[in-house]
Amino acid sequence: MKTKSIVLVASFIMLISAAFVSPFEKLVSQKTHISFFSSTPVEDITADNYKATSTLDTSTGDLVFSVPMQSFEFEKALMQKHYNGKDFLDTKSFPKSKFVGKITNLDQVDFTKDGTYEASVSGEMTIKGVTNSVDEKGTILVKGGRVAAESTFDLTLADYGINFKNGKPASNIAKTIEITFKGEY
Amino acid sequence: MKKFKWLKPVLIAFTATAVIGLAVVAYLLNMPHRDIQSSQTDYAISANLLVEEFLASSDTAYEKYLDEAGESKILEVEGEVYEISKDFNEQTVVLLKTTDKEAGVSCTFLPSEIDFGQHLKVGQKIKVKGVIRSGANYDADLEMYEHVIMEKCDLVTNI
Fold this sequence. Notes:
The structure holds 2 protein chains of 2 kinds.
Chain A: H1 2-21, E1 26-29, E2 31-39, E3 44-49, E4 53-57, E5 62-68, E6 73-74, H2 77-84, E7 96-103, E8 115-127, E9 130-143, E10 146-156, H3 167-172, E11 176-184
Antiparallel strand pairs in A: 1-4, 2-3, 2-11, 3-6, 4-5, 5-7, 7-8, 8-9, 9-10, 10-11
Chain B: H1 7-29, E1 43-46, H2 47-56, H3 58-65, E2 74-86, E3 92-96, E4 105-109, H4 116-119, E5 125-134, E6 137-139, E7 144-146, E8 148-155
Helix pairs in contact in B: 2-3
């Protein structure tokens, strides 16, 4: 009788833990790289950020990332100051940017099988307190049970209330910049 | 020739102004990044207290620690090593957090000859100097706590 109950309890525990290690779970990535690239005839500007946090729910396709805006590093100190300032990203008032979205073609992504999958992502991006809908493409890489995501897309600064009417910024910063995201979950 | 006597000081003044102006522009364009490690520390605080400050009132804490031009406060934070990792830029990242807390302080280290991954041990108490980038908070979309973020860090205490 006693052994029977032990077996029962043991199998119950195994069942529960099996449920927890199933591939359908919320993955967290704190190893990320976000960069942006602005190109004009006058100059090219890039900035890098390695401190974003992202979650990916492999059962629902929910994809979130949160980006600490002051972590963008520029080559030139003056550019970084301008970027952080009130007229540009106002990072003191809006210290984080966020994307909340979903992988819309989840049926075409198999998180349990090694491979490279094209993912369609749609959701809402909030930068400097302004939210816009975005639909972008990305790549999901599954290798040995590890999941990584990559995406490159364009972002129009004016959509987020970042406008340069005149002066140096208007000629040196592109109206549309290229964002690259990479994350290991 | 004599009637152009006034020209000399004007020319000198003009040249001097132009040289100074160009020097200022050149300086601004090539202004070096702030050297965090040789700058003065603004606040010394424990990792847990720093997290608490942000969780208690994020507005007050952001007002206190963040700078409008991105030159935010330089902190010396004391805490327990919870996790050591590397980021995509091959920089060492040390999370200062105690096991009973949900959020800690994530410190990205400057390149160093010391291999922190080898020298630091989980549970070890250390003091780290760096610049704060963002605060701790519970994020309902991520469904998790986000750590305080510090960068350009180095160890204050010897290892």
